[in-house]
Design goal:
This protein is an alpha/beta fold and 416 residues long. The chain has two domains: 195 residues, FAD/NAD(P)-binding domain; 197 residues, FAD/NAD(P)-binding domain. The chain is built from nine helices and 24 strands. The strands form seven sheets. Strands 1, 2, 3, 4, 5, 6, 21 and 24 form an eight-stranded mixed sheet that branches. It has a five-stranded parallel sheet with strand order 8-19-9-10-15, covered by helices on one side. A hairpin with a 2-residue loop joins strand 16 and strand 17. Helix 1 packs across helix 9. The longest helix is centred in the C-terminal third of the chain and has 26 residues. The two termini are 31 Å apart.
């Protein structure tokens, strides 16, 4: 049996940020990665994908962007290289191609079993992230035969899709980007829209994430919000990283010719059934966008920000009339369904009380109920930016501080 003080499970940016913070505290540890470093960026991204965050936001412990395009957006391949280079520069103790099969409590810590050996560690950090597995609803099993059914992790580009129409389910970041790309390939696209977060790419001459960062929105802490459970379940922002600084929202897609429908509520006898909620969820997204822009404007006025353009507002979402409520999947019109319905963490390998009855992670800012067990990379873990590369540094610093205090106490009972 191998021994170490801390096992970090996951060699993505969160696991490596945690590794760097542990190293800075001289805490002995190992990083176990199921594939290569940045595995998901290498194997589970479509060809044209870019980061939603501008390059200057690729900040990690001991690392800042050093290139000549701070306002650009890294491709998936560039992001994988960034994370790989960071692992080398940090001299992170990564054991690649070492899948973790189970973690269970043991005397004085945990037993971490891999496909090769077993580790004993006093503490464990689960850094497998929020996007370990696509969340595809059970409706997938009701799709008529002959229709290709793909998760975003299986989609690469339109050329690999069958000819014919495509139904994209979900209108967050993945859904809107894929819907636009597929439509531009000449395939008719229907987009099923549920709750979403509408954002412009730029506002008053600056990237919208500059505003969210500078005004403190991204830094808002988990103990400062009223309904933490709800904000942790919010869909991802409707953004696309592109050199042209394009905004893609429902209005953009509708004007391109994408057919909008409400949330996919069911499939019965081969007929897709959509809810009638499109107008309501769109109005709610418009309202929240207006409130966010008001926040930016107040902050700009209070801090006397210079060099910005005048305040602006955006046209309400144009809801088609009538909104389609059904779509016959047996007609041959739809040949592919892409389930852009979000992602979920996969913590099934942890044999400890970290999930509730619905399988959702239970934690206090990344500190699990099982002493010595930590989570990182989950939505709004400790801050609104927790799932962004830019959020890993602050979260890792906080959690490594807690972990160090835990190791220093006899019972290890201190809390966040």
């Amino acid at each position: 049996m191998l021994t170490t003080t801390t096992v970090v499970v996951g060699g993505g940016h969160c696991g490596l940020a945690m590794s760097r913070c542990l190293a800075d505290k001289s805490i002995d540890h190992v990083v176990l990665e199921r594939g290569e470093v940045a595995n998901s960026w290498r194997t589970q991204r479509w060809d044209s994908l870019r980061l939603l965050t501008p390059n200057w936001m690729t900040r990690l412990p001991g690392h800042t962007y050093r290139g000549d395009d701070p306002d650009g957006y890294l491709t998936a391949a560039q992001t994988a290289q960034l994370i790989t280079d960071y692992a080398k520069e940090s001299a992170a103790p990564v054991r690649a191609n070492t899948p973790v099969l189970s973690v269970r409590a043991a005397e004085h810590g945990y037993l971490v079993r891999t496909d090769q050996d077993t580790w004993h560690a006093r503490t464990v950090v689960a850094a497998s992230g929020a996007t370990a597995a696509p969340h595809v609803p059970q409706l997938r099993h009701s799709v008529p035969t002959g229709i290709a059914s793909l998760a975003p992790t299986e989609y690469r580009n339109p050329d690999r899709l069958p000819d014919g129409g495509v139904l994209v389910v979900g209108a967050s970041a993945s859904g809107i980007q894929i819907a636009e790309e597929v439509h531009r390939s000449g395939r008719p696209v229907t987009l099923a829209v549920g709750e979403h977060v509408r954002l412009p790419r730029t506002y008053r001459g600056k990237d919208v994430l500059w505003w969210m960062d500078a005004s403190g929105v991204l830094g808002e802490r988990y103990d400062e919000v009223d309904d933490l459970d709800r904000v942790r379940r919010l869909p991802s922002m409707q953004l696309v990283g592109s050199p042209e600084l394009r905004t893609i929202d429902l209005n953009t897609l509708s004007r391109l010719g994408v057919r909008l429908a409400g949330r996919l509520a069911g499939i019965r006898d081969g007929v897709a059934q959509f809810s009638g909620s499109l107008a309501n969820v769109s109005a709610l997204a418009d309202l929240k966008l207006g409130r966010l822009l008001d926040t930016f404007d107040r902050w700009a006025a209070e801090t006397a920000v210079e060099g910005i353009e005048p305040s602006q507002r955006y046209a309400p979402t144009e809801v088609p009339t009538p909104v389609p409520l059904t779509l016959d999947l047996r007609s041959g019109e739809i040949r592919t369904i892409i389930w852009a319905t979000g992602f979920r963490p996969d913590l099934s390998w942890i044999d400890a009380p970290v999930c509730d009855r619905k399988g959702r992670a239970r934690h206090d800012g990344g500190v699990a109920a099982s002493p010595g067990l930590y989570l990182i990379g989950l939505p709004f873990l400790r801050r609104r930016k927790s799932t962004l590369i830019d959020g890993a540094a602050a979260d890792a610093a906080d959690l490594s501080d807690h972990l160090a205090r835990y190791l220093a106490t006899a019972g290890g009972a201190s809390h966040a």
